[in-house]
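seq:
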Amino acid sequence: NSASDGIKYVKVEVSASLGADAPETVYRCGAVGRGLHKFWLLLVYLAQYSVYPLLLLNFFYRFAFAAYKSNFGYLLEESLSYGPKQVGIAVSCMGIMGMLVQGVIVRVCVARLGEEATLTLAMVLTSVGYASLSCMRHALHLAPTLALISLGYGLTVPCISALFSHVPVQQGFMQGIAGSIDRFGQVFGPMLGGLLLDYMSIKLLMLGTGSALMVVATLCLTFIVHGFSSRLRAAICCCCAGGDDYTAVGTEEDADDDDFEDGEAGGPADTGAPQESSTAPPRISEARCSASSMGS
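struct:
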């Protein structure tokens, strides 16, 4: 074409630019090796955002809930001699309570406590609810137990989704990963729960489910919730010491704030001692804000 016609399209040959002798990536296992290599790259990519504790918590929570839900009918039949009609009514009541929690209560809890503290509370309620099923002897025991489980589940699902939205990556990608982990838990939970029924009673299974969820949630929340480990250590020390010689969490920070206010009122006091700056590790929400500011 002439210069007056202009350039209509440009075709770039990558192989020509790299040269004819450019090495090709050869996988030992063919397509399987290529898939494993891409999966490894995905794991390395997610490790940059410290999202594995949240993914593990999401998986095990769904795993425990699926194991409980698949054996819930057998528990009611063995403990209370319930039939299909009574089991259906109990499950429907759980659904109604879940609607109330996710429609009203979760908004109040998140506004007052925040997402991380609400998630911690939800894990405690759910674990206690599962463990309480092992002590059920009467129909009157069923109502508070189902209330604990419904309240915990209704608070957990929105909080986990909100924390995933704080990860500074494309949300379609992040929510897809979270959904996949969710489905894995729902697949393996009923399988393992049904398998364990051959070796233990249904009540012991519920007690083990609640105890395991409490342990895993504690480990994961140590990395997810900012300051969770220090609060947990302070609570354990308080219980061991019986309340003596215990300094509440936040006392030193309040004293520092008072000194700062006094310094503003009467002028800064120069003590001659070097000042050390303490920076807390950023939370997921802070990482998202910093990432968005850098992008803008």
